[in-house]
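Try this one yourself first.
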């Protein structure tokens, strides 16, 4: 590896911590990112001659802190800034040695700064898409081009989104701090929502021609692990980490060689990642706090655990899943959760019971353009042998679907409903489609409330 490659690799790993350290001093994430880039340039200039330091992350952080302090000192309003930052600035403003020391700053300070950066990037003052883009840029280390490619947007649009987010944070004078007290729960929910939605877009892409985008899942999973390490006493943080570990374990089995979806009942479970499953169960254990009722992410992780425990599709305990969806509906009610509960009931008690529950919520305006509603009805109608009605529902769902792979799957289901081989006797494909819908993502902002409601698909 060349020195330049080593610098880039280190910066990708350490970027969030470097930005966080600078942001604590300048109190502006946009300026902090520019300072971090300056530190990168300094490393590219010096490391080829001096070699890569023993602790390259600490080297970059020390350079960024020094430049941040110099910037604050040069400002005309330095006195006001000094009063705001107080003793923490005075301590940080101590000039470092001529060459930055790799041992500068305790790990606790770095972790605190990183946590502040996470809560700032995910601040509710920003629209959801802006929070996602800014988090991936500052904390995920993704370039604007990478974010645009992942979300099928133009690079210019993503760049504008990130720039507006930085301006909005500055205009709102969002404090660079970790919230405490009553505000903490709401702010934490915003952070978890961002990480969840990033994972969900990778796990079941809402549009485009890829069913799965593993790189996005990996970015979200890494962020979830960071949060779990920084907030060890927050059950919902561990619940989210458990959920993502368990769901990510299925990714190798979710698509065929040509990228087409492989439904839950047909997946080769020997391809599920057992290490991720063990990590998921460990995180779920950490999320269990005696006397504290489980929150929505813990409940979703428990649903995912039911599937991970089943060595065969036929071993799935749908009765337990029905109970867990009932608890989820109680703590985070929404028509989408009720839709998923209805599917679980259909798997446990039969399609007729499930269809009655679906029809009871079909008129909810939040489900008006939700393609999984007609898809679920089509599945249930097919299981009841009502093939003409099932075909119409699958066609309606295909018209609403934005993901090309999912649209193809729904159109295939519609064709299959035209000439059923065994009317009234659903095969594994139909049953697995039901299971897939019971596990499909539905955390769409503005549709189901402040956060996601159900776990991603099989």
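Now uncover the answer:
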């Amino acid at each position: 590896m060349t020195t330049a490659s080593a610098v880039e690799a280190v910066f990708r790993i350490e970027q969030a911590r470097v930005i966080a350290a600078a942001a604590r001093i300048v109190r502006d994430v946009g300026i902090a990112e520019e300072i971090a880039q300056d530190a990168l340039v300094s490393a590219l200039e010096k490391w080829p001659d001096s070699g890569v330091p023993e602790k390259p992350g600490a080297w970059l952080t020390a350079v960024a802190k020094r430049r941040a302090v110099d910037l604050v000192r040069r400002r005309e309003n330095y006195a006001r800034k000094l009063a705001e930052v107080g003793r923490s600035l005075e301590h940080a403003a101590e000039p470092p040695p001529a060459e930055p020391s790799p041992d500068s700053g305790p790990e606790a300070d770095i972790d605190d700064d990183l946590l502040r950066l996470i809560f700032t990037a995910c601040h509710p003052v920003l629209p959801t898409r802006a929070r996602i883009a800014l988090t991936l840029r500052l904390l995920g280390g993704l370039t604007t081009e990478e974010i645009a490619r992942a979300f099928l947007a133009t690079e210019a649009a993503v760049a504008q989104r990130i720039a507006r987010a930085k301006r909005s944070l500055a205009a709102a004078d969002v404090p660079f701090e970790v919230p405490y007290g009553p505000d903490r729960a709401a702010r934490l929910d915003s952070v978890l929502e961002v990480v969840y939605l990033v994972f969900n877009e990778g796990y079941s892409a809402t549009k485009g021609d890829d069913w799965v985008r593993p790189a996005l899942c990996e970015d979200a999973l890494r962020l979830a692990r960071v949060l779990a390490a920084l907030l060890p006493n927050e059950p919902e943080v561990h619940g989210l980490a458990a959920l993502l570990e368990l769901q990510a374990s299925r990714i190798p089995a979710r698509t065929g060689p040509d990228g087409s979806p492989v439904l839950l009942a047909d997946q080769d479970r020997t391809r599920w990642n057992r290490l991720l499953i063990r990590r998921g169960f460990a995180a779920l254990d950490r999320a269990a706090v005696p006397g504290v009722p489980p929150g929505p992410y813990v409940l979703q992780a428990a649903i995912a655990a039911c599937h991970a425990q089943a060595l065969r599709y036929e071993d799935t305990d749908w009765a337990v899943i029905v109970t867990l969806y009932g608890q989820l509906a109680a703590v985070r009610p929404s028509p989408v959760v009720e839709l998923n509960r209805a599917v679980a009931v259909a798997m446990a008690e039969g399609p007729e019971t499930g269809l009655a529950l679906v029809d009871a919520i079909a008129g909810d305006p939040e489900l008006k353009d939700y393609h999984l509603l007609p898809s679920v009805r089509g599945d249930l109608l097919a299981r009841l042998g009502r093939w003409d009605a099932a075909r119409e529902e699958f066609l309606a769902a295909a018209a609403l679907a934005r993901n090309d792979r999912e649209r193809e799957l729904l159109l295939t289901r519609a064709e299959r409903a035209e000439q059923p081989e065994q009317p009234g006797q659903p095969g594994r494909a139909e049953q697995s489609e039901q299971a897939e819908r019971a596990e499909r993502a539905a955390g769409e902002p503005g549709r189901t409330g402040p956060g996601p409601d159900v776990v991603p698909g099989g």
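Discussion: DSSP finds 21 helices and no strands in the chain. Residues 325-438 form a domain with the Serine Threonine Protein Phosphatase 5, Tetratricopeptide repeat fold (CATH 1.25.40).
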